[in-house]
Amino acid sequence: MSQSIRFPIIHAVTDSAALLRADFLQRAEAIMRALGARGAVHLRTSRLSGRRFHEVAASLAELQATTGCWLIVNDRVDIGKAVGARGIQLASHSLGIAEARTVAPDTPIGTSVHSVEEARQAESEGASWCVVGTVFETPSHPGREPARLGFIEDVTSVLRIPVIAIGGIEPADVPALRKAGAHGIATIRGAGWEGMGNAFAEDDPLRHTRLFEVPGAGSEELVTRYISAYDSHAGRSGNDYPDGERNSEGTGAQQ
């Protein structure tokens, strides 16, 4: 990925439930317009047919030019390439980076990692970025011990490519994650696909731990709180950091 390209700082990740909503495309468009060039929508699901997934991806790909927001297609390298998504995200069950590049040689490709060793390997294989987690407790990974901030520090200390932190992240966590070296953050629930910040059941023990509540807030209002938190740190409002703005020790250029 060229150093002249500014990689998004806020990544709104879908889940299968979000894509099954009748108003998904409207919500996704609102988020893309709210985030603009500083954001990305990750299209991820295991519950749509290939044809339907392509239709949804094609609709969002058209919005990239007018909103500036990236569409990043998860796992389906073929669909990402076909619709002209600005990025592709690989998971542990996806094609390897080398194999994915044979399908989409000119598309930036990131990968998800859960250890420093995986992060080193991903960079050596040509990943354009790493999504790193799970940072805090999250219901999408029950039973997984959260990695916390020290893990982000460990990963950013060995990588020069952007690190995107994921897992139970609230806007209030963004300054600490930036200080730990993260380029940006990714969020599922914080994107407000359900139309409000707290989507837990009343009896869920995590309901009042990592989620914030903004009753009645729209998706775009929720997700822009992350941008506000990002800009409030280090006094560099309105700017994100191009690839390569990371020193050899891994600390962010913003520091």
Question: Please, could you describe this protein's structure?
Answer:
This protein has 255 residues and is α/β, with parallel strands linked by helices. The chain has a single domain (10-232), classed as Aldolase class I (TIM Barrel), CATH 3.20.20. It is built from ten helices and eight strands. Strands 1-2-3-4-5-6-7-8 form an eight-stranded parallel beta barrel, surrounded by seven helices. α5 links the parallel β3 and β4. α2 (24-35) runs parallel beside α10 (219-232) and α3 (50-61) runs parallel beside α5. The protein is globular, with a radius of gyration of 17 Å. The chain starts with 9 loop residues before the first strand and ends in a 23-residue tail after the last helix.
Describe the SSE topology.
Blueprint: E1 10-13, H1 16-19, H2 24-35, E2 39-43, H3 50-61, H4 63-67, E3 70-74, H5 77-83, E4 87-90, H6 97-103, E5 109-113, H7 116-124, E6 129-132, H8 148-156, E7 163-166, H9 174-179, E8 184-187, H10 219-232
Parallel strand pairs: 1-2, 1-8, 2-3, 3-4, 4-5, 5-6, 6-7, 7-8
Helix pairs in contact: 2-10, 3-5
